[in-house]
């Protein structure tokens, strides 16, 4: 009886409430900044990776959802619809690669309505590049190009430009991002999430997460930008994530339903606000209401944000409202607060003691090299497109621009994507290259052939190019020349200064002669080809093209070219009618096994000395610079840590966690081979079955070029390996070295030291690795050692006087950072698959103190912008009289200083 009465009483009680309260609630979302209160800027956003676990297109249209249920098309459709419903709602969007895809699918009527959202500030473009680029591994020119492409789209379609930098997910942050892609770009502020866990802890304690970042020492205060670091990640505080399948408790304010919780959720909100306010200066804090691929069902977010704004502001303890980073930045600027100064950069990044994200500086080195090669080609192609005149119907560089922009994404050139996504990026670059290759060929033909008019497509000369020249495959140069035909080589220089280079092309005969543009025979040299190079050529041409090379390759033909600024010179290679070879056949010398001699390499100012008995470099001598010092170069590898039950952290695509280090010692099973000739000397070394290298010393150069071939890295022993090379001197460098920032400024590094906090070092190797795009150098009181690279690598100076570069990685465990796939790149052939082999170069020079900077800047630009070669066949020997043999886009009496780079030359 008592139970029945209680039930009756409760029924009457709740029924009474239902009759007295209205079910419909008109939420007040009109709030703004309220002086004197803590103002909570709620910023709805979605972080949409332009490829990672899925390809960029799969992420857009929602394909391959077994890997990740993400569809950016749904995000944009849903967000736009929700913004139409309430003019107080706001949303920021970042990745133009996705927005462009969505935009071109919209009707004209929809485009008008979306433009109104942008004009009113409801929809704001933040960052505005085609992607949210990586900051460690791209070259600064690529950063400029991909940002420009996205900003041009926004400007053309909406008449606006972004105000805010938004690099919330990259794994560390560069000084170039701060000043070049921030302050000099005109951004008012820059925001991101990832910094070292020790750095974050100190900044939280000191309320120094928001700083003035002065990225350039030389540019000083003109390079500084207001920078905000989020107190946690780039998602909301715990309990405030509202995608349809997220677990945060929504506000339940319908009294007809159970679990009414308005006050409880308001209290949760206020508590989270006060916690963040305690680590933030001023009374303005920002909550990022979103995270990866959220807002696919946007109403589930906006409905809850509407409610929180309504009830929190009714509560009155704090003030909440829809905002954007622009509004937040303006509020910070008006607060008259003194902000701490930050200099240098935010590398390396670690998220716990044994997890330094320094492995990705090298991950996927072949792809990194391809991106860098394509970048230099794109720069040259745009110049030739400009000189020829852009055609509305003919080939152009647009596809290459799009592909290269997407490749700068922080899960693209970084090497942290899944394998099928890496293949997709490479395919896009290849498609863009093939289109640009046609443009380059037609442009060179138009400039060289006076019978064609500039801008016309019906040119007589047909040029071929050799994208696989790096693996010694070039069909036009390998073709056997008859007495009636010769090979025309056009060498284009994309730099703004005159250039002297030695170029090498593969040939199938020794009976060749080379003439310059005036018809004068010039000196040339035939060099032998390593067995490792021939093996690589045959296997990879088959893998890439589905066929074996048709010619039997015999030599590299080397000859000097003299190139005008932004221009080309023409050379011809003909069959020699002399009984012997006309090109100088290199002398090849292999010392006896028991030889104790010292062998000198180099015929100009630079000479390298080798010990025949030890099979290694021992001394560096520059007679012009009066530099003489001992030097060694060696290889080794780190065994990748597999993790333990106590700490499962392994070495993987992101994280470098070495276990042990092992030297790779040549047992002289294959003795050194020395190659001498009038233009250059070479030293051929086979260190083991999967590492070989060629060291080149050019007669007219004062640096050594080292071309390495590494792979397949063996992992049959169950050990992942990370391959390094070391250049060792006796220099006293006091733990100090210098690495570049995206190919521009050099930043001082001190081993086991951080400028901003007292470092507690748990990983003394990985924790001292830094990204290298241009180079690294050391100096003592007398000399400086410089090493330049041809792609992004990780590197350090772990021992005084020594430079270490990581060149290749093959691992057998995932590092538990989301990619869910082992970094174990393979290439498949008809008889099976094997680990990926890579080929690359680095460049070494030792100078007197203070003399290296000029060389690093000039040669670094030459490495980025190699000579572009195009080939054509001609009948007879009268081409030079009927064609333009030389061309320069700059007045012949003028050239740019060799510290001034031509970054962009194109007509829109």
Q: What can you tell me about this protein's structure?
A:
- It is a single chain.
- The protein is an alpha+beta fold and 908 residues long.
- 26% of the residues lie in helices and 27% in strands.
- The chain contains 18 helices and 43 strands.
- The strands form 9 sheets. It has a 10-stranded antiparallel beta sheet with strand order 21-27-28-29-30-41-36-35-32-33.
- A hairpin with a 3-residue loop joins strand 35 and strand 36 (783-789).
- The longest helix has 30 residues, at 419-448.
- The N and C termini lie far apart (87 Å).
- The model is unreliable at 1-20 (pLDDT under 50).
Portion of residues in helices? 25-40%
Number of distinct helices:
18
Q: Give the low-confidence spans.
A: 1-20
Spatial extent as radius of gyration: 31 Å
Assembly classification = single chain
Shape summary: globular
**Terminus-to-terminus distance:** 87 Å
Strand content: 25-35%
Tell me the number of strands.
Answer: 43
Reconstruct the topology from this structure.
Layout: H1 2-20, E1 39-44, H2 56-61, H3 72-85, E2 91-93, H4 96-103, H5 108-120, E3 123-125, H6 140-158, E4 164-166, H7 175-183, E5 189-192, H8 197-206, E6 210-214, E7 224-229, H9 262-277, E8 284-289, H10 299-315, E9 319-322, H11 325-333, E10 341-343, E11 350-352, E12 355-356, H12 365-388, H13 398-406, H14 419-448, H15 475-478, E13 485-493, E14 499-507, E15 512-515, E16 521-522, E17 524-528, H16 531-545, E18 555-563, E19 567-575, E20 584-585, E21 587-589, E22 598-601, E23 606-611, E24 616-622, E25 627-640, E26 658-664, E27 673-676, E28 680-688, E29 691-698, E30 704-710, E31 721-729, E32 736-740, E33 746-750, E34 770-772, E35 775-779, E36 783-789, E37 793-796, E38 802-810, E39 826-829, E40 832-835, E41 838-848, H17 852-864, E42 868-875, H18 879-882, E43 886-888
């Amino acid at each position: 009886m008592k139970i029945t009465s209680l039930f009756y009483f409760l029924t009457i009680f709740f029924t009474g409430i239902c009759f007295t309260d209205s079910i419909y609630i008109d939420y007040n979302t009109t709030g703004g900044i309220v002086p004197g209160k803590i103002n909570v800027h709620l910023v709805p956003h979605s972080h949409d990776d332009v490829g990672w676990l899925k390809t960029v297109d799969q992420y857009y249209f929602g394909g391959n959802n077994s890997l990740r249920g993400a569809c950016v098309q749904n995000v944009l459709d849903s967000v736009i619809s929700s913004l139409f419903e309430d003019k107080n709602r706001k949303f920021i969007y970042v990745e133009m690669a996705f927005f462009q895809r969505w935009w071109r699918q919209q009707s004209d009527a929809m485009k008008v309505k979306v433009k109104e959202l942008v004009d009113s500030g409801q929809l704001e473009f933040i960052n505005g590049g085609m992607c949210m680029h990586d900051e460690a591994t791209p070259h600064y020119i690529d950063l400029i190009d991909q940002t420009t492409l996205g900003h041009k789209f926004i400007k053309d379609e909406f008449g606006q430009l972004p105000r805010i930098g938004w690099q919330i997910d990259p794994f560390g942050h560069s000084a170039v991002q701060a000043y070049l892609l921030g302050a000099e770009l005109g951004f008012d502020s820059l925001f991101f999430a990832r910094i070292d866990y020790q750095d974050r802890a100190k900044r939280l304690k000191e309320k120094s997460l928001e700083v003035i970042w002065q990225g350039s020492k030389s540019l000083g205060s003109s390079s500084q930008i207001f920078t905000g670091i989020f107190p946690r990640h780039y998602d909301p505080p715990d309990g405030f994530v509202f995608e349809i399948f997220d677990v945060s408790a929504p506000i339940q304010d319908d009294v007809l339903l159970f679990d009414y919780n308005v006050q409880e959720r308001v209290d949760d909100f206020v508590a989270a606000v006060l916690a963040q306010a305690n680590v933030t200066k001023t009374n303005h804090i920002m909550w990022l209401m979103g995270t990866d691929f959220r807002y696919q069902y946007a109403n589930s977010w906006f409905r809850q944000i509407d409610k929180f704004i309504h009830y929190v502001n009714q509560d009155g303890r704090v003030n909440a409202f829809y905002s954007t980073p622009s509004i937040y930045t303006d509020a910070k600027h008006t607060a008259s607060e003194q902000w701490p100064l930050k200099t240098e950069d935010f590398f390396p990044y670690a998220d716990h003691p044994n997890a330094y994200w320094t492995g990705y500086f090298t991950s996927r080195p072949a792809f990194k090299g391809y991106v860098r090669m394509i970048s230099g080609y794109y720069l040259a192609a745009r110049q030739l497109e400009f000189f020829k005149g852009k055609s509305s119907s003919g080939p152009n560089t647009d596809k290459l621009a799009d592909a290269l922009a997407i490749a700068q994404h922080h899960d693209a050139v970084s090497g942290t994507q899944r394998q099928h996504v890496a293949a997709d990026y490479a395919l896009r670059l290849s498609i863009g290259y093939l289109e640009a290759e046609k443009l380059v060929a037609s442009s060179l033909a138009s400039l060289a052939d006076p019978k064609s008019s500039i801008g016309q497509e019906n040119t007589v000369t047909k040029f071929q190019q050799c994208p696989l020249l790096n693996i010694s495959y070039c069909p036009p140069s390998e073709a056997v020349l008859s007495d009636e035909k010769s090979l025309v080589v056009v060498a284009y220089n994309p730099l703004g200064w005159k250039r002297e280079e030695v170029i090498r092309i593969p040939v199938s005969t020794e009976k060749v002669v080379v003439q310059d543009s005036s018809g004068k025979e010039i000196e040339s040299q035939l060099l032998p080809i390593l067995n490792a190079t021939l093996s690589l050529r045959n296997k990879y041409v088959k893998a890439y093209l589905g066929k074996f090379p048709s010619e039997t390759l015999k030599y590299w033909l080397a000859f000097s070219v003299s190139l005008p600024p932004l221009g080309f010179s023409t050379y011809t290679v003909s069959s020699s009618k002399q009984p012997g070879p006309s090109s100088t056949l290199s002398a090849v010398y292999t010392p006896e096994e028991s030889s104790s001699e010292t062998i000198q390499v180099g015929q100009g100012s630079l000479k390298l000395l080798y010990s025949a008995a030890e099979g290694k470099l021992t001394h560096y001598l520059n007679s012009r610079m009066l530099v003489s010092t001992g030097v060694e170069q060696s290889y080794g590898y780190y065994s990748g840590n597999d993790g333990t039950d106590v700490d499962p952290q392994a070495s993987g695509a992101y994280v470098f966690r070495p276990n042990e280090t092992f030297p790779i010692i040549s047992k002289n099973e294959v003795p050194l081979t020395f190659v001498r000739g009038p233009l250059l000397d070479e030293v051929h070394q086979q260190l083991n079955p999967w590492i070989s290298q060629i060291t080149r010393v050019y007669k007219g150069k004062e640096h050594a070029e080292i071309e390495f071939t590494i792979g397949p890295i063996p992992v049959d022993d169950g050990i992942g390996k990370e391959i390094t090379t070391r250049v060792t001197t006796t220099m006293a460098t006091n733990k100090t070295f210098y690495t570049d920032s995206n190919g521009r400024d050099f930043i001082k590094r001190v081993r086991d030291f951080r400028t901003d906090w007292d470092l507690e070092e748990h990983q003394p190797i990985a924790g001292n690795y830094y990204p290298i795009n241009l180079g690294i150098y050391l100096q003592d009181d007398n000399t400086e050692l410089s090493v330049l690279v041809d792609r992004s690598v990780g590197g350090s100076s772990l021992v005084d006087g020594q430079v270490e570069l990581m060149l290749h990685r093959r691992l057998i465990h995932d590092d538990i950072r989301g990619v869910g796939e082992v970094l174990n790149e393979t290439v498949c052939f008809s008889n099976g698959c094997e680990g990926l082999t890579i080929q690359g170069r680095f460049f070494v020079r030792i100078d007197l103190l203070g003399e290296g900077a000029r060389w690093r800047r000039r040669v670094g630009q030459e490495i980025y912008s190699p000579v572009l070669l195009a080939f054509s066949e001609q009948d007879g020997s009268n081409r030079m009289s009927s064609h333009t043999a030389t061309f320069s886009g700059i007045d012949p009496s003028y050239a740019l200083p060799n510290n001034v780079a031509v970054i962009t030359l194109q007509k829109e």
